[in-house]
Amino acid sequence: MASRANQINIILNDHQMKPVEVVEEQDPFESVHHALKHFIGMDIIRDKMIEIYALIEMNKRREDVGLKTDPQSFHMLFKGNPGTGKTTVARALAKWFAQLGILTHQHVIEADRADLVGEYIGQTAHKTRALIKRAQGGILFIDEAYALARGGDKDFGREAIDMLVTHMENHRQTFILILAGYPEQMNDFLQTNPGLRSRFPFIIDFPDYQPAQLLEIAKKMVKNRDYHLTKQAENKLYQLLIKERQGKERSQFSNARYVRNIIEKSIRNQSIRLVKQKIYDTKAYILLTADDIPNDNE
Ligand SMILES: Nc1ncnc2c1ncn2[C@@H]1O[C@H](COP(=O)(O)OP(=O)(O)OP(=O)(O)O)[C@@H](O)[C@H]1O
Ligand SMILES: [Mg+2]
What we know:
The protein is of the alpha/beta class. It has 14 helices and seven strands.
């Protein structure tokens, strides 16, 4: 028994001598969590970023030991209803890709049909080329991308799509193209342009938020602005979110943007209340009460 106990002791001592690196080691995907730390939800994009990070990391390691790697492209399609975070995520991605050394800049050039498509011959090529040039090193984010295919084959939008496709292949290492839009229209767009899907390795859905997530987003927005919702305000807001989300067509409800508008309206209501009642007290400045939350018909 005694020798057995000693043996265990030795093993433990041995173990204690080892540096505790393994326990303290950073999460390898820390940069992903950091990039998304201000967002609620976003599980789908988080999983995609983990995939991308792992791929980049492994490619680097393979290169280091002289193994082959495929040149990678990170062009993406974002499908999501209004206010689901598409534009905001594109900006966060630009920063993240720049940190990882995939992009040289962290700018996002936001564009829509009017920025690409001209009215007379030659203008579209000129506009599209200029935009791609500006986007070099960063992200070119085209909102409501399906509008490019709006006018059919004879429309100049077609020319813009063809140019984008050529450039995204030829300059895959120097900029990232993100085409964004509402889900149904984007699906139609992909169907009418079958060659496109295969050129975008990352097709990402931005789902509508659940009422509980919308409330979390509201709390985050309020906290960022140095306010706090009372319990009653929180309940009233939650009921409002459930009602609005259910009452509207999916494509009509503006998700997190709706929340932002409600919060901004609540802050204005609070200001009126405090000024009217001449309440000048720090605690009161912070609290948003149920009275400040707008009623649904406002
Ligand atoms: N998951 C989230 N957590 C916190 N805030 C969010 C989240 N998603 C969106 N927001 C906020 O909601 C607002 C709207 O988001 P954004 O503009 O990115 O949506 P969008 O999908 O681009 O909408 P649209 O299709 O109408 O352009 C922004 O203020 C953004 O910061
Ligand atoms: Mg947007």
